[in-house]
User: Which sequence fits this backbone?
């Protein structure tokens, strides 16, 4: 019986190592939660992270958790990025949260949906130093109802 337990343990350890080796390396993730499930356009969320490895490529994601009662298939954002010793770059993004064929995109459980949406289309090399991001929505509905949390995620891409 002890041999079977050790074989199961080895198999379990192998599976854990295999699964974790396939994941990208998360460098940074921070979310802002909205206890009343609404996000005011006046609430600007600020995030910052430090880059030391300039040889790697990075993907940057907008992270959102919303309720099934969210009224739209998309969300409009203004994202301001300041890289080390550069001026602020402003992007206006229209990010899809649903489509007519599949419904809500991302992962859902009951009536809550989570989604990571790339902000940069392709993996990017980043300069060394401190990056500052600020994010706010520019939707006509204000406050934006059905939003539970939003955030920013940065991952190192495996080649």
Assistant:
């Amino acid at each position: 019986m002890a041999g079977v337990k050790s074989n199961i343990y080895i198999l379990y350890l192998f599976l854990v190592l295999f699964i974790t080796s396939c994941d990208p390396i998360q460098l940074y993730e921070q979310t802002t939660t909205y206890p009343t499930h609404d996000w005011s356009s006046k609430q600007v969320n600020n995030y910052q992270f430090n880059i030391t490895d300039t040889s790697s490529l990075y993907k940057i994601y907008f992270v959102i958790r919303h309720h099934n009662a969210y009224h739209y298939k998309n969300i409009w954002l203004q994202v301001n990025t300041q890289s080390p010793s550069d001026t602020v770059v402003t992007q206006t993004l229209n990010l899809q949260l649903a489509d007519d064929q599949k419904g809500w995109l991302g992962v859902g459980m009951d009536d809550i949906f989570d989604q990571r949406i790339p902000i940069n289309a392709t993996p990017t090399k980043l300069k060394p130093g401190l990056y500052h991001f600020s994010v706010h929505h520019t939707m006509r509905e204000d406050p934006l109802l059905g939003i539970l949390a939003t955030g920013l995620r940065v991952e190192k891409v495996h080649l």
User: Anything to note?
Assistant: The chain has a mean pLDDT of 86. The longest strand covers residues 57-67.
